[in-house]
């Protein structure tokens, strides 16, 4: 990866044991890991979901897409061209200050563009991320207990869209071992895969997501609205 990559500085809260501190985190490399499912049947279900939208099967599983770090945002509103984009909850791994941190974000993606160019579709939309991260070492002993959820707004109501344990995806150590020879550079943030959508993939004017730690009784959460930009032609 290039050493001259521009950085995107995010103001986040880092939680380590019983302490929390606000930090300015410089992200230089954003990676979207796709097709990271441990359960081959569930992975096939998600691939089938996207095939219904005309999206081709991936060249490999998992696969790693590079996205501009500038796309990361903690803002409560993002803008998207047209009405064909949608979010999907993913846990995220951040390398900062020589350590790994765990957070949660949404791989918001333009589904029409995804049908003919997955890499381009990933670049089309901002990638919302919650402004809180946990020390990976703190959650590693009970990693399999963590739960991902997302919600959409449908007919004016908040509805559950995705829900499942992080064990649906490869564990961070296993996934990182497949990336860049196992080396995660300082300032790298990786989204690590998603769950099947309940009722199928569909757009929504708002999206909320969370990562729950039932052992420590805490949750990282974020929500955002989608401002749809007119497509003139």
Automatic annotation (TrEMBL):
It holds the Pfam family DUF2848. It comes from the Bacteria. SUPFAM superfamilies: FAH. InterPro entries: DUF2848, Fumarylacetoacetase_C_sf. This is DUF2848 domain-containing protein. It comes from Novosphingobium album (ex Liu et al. 2023).
């Amino acid at each position: 990866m290039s050493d001259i990559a521009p950085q995107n500085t995010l103001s986040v809260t880092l939680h380590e044991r019983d302490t929390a501190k606000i930090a300015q985190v410089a992200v230089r490399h954003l990676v979207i890991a796709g097709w990271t499912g441990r359960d081959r049947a569930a992975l096939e279900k998600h691939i089938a979901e996207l095939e219904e939208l005309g999206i081709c099967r991936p060249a490999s599983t998992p696969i790693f897409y590079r996205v501009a770090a500038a796309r990361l945002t903690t803002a409560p509103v993002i803008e998207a061209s047209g009405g064909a984009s949608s979010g999907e909850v993913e846990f995220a791994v951040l390398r900062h200050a020589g350590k790994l941190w765990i957070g949660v974000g949404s791989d918001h993606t333009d589904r029409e563009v995804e049908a003919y160019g997955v890499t381009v579709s990933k670049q089309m939309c901002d990638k919302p991320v919650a402004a809180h991260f946990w020390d990976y070492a703190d959650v590693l002993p009970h990693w399999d207990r963590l739960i991902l959820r997302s919600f959409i707004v449908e007919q004016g109501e908040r509805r559950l869209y995705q829900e499942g344990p992080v064990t649906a995806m490869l564990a961070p150590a296993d996934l990182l071992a497949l990336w860049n020879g196992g080396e995660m550079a300082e300032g790298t943030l990786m989204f690590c895969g998603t769950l099947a959508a309940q009722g199928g993939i569909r757009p929504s004017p708002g999206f909320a997501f969370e990562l729950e730690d039932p052992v420590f009784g805490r949750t990282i959460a974020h929500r955002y609205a989608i401002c749809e930009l007119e497509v003139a032609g």
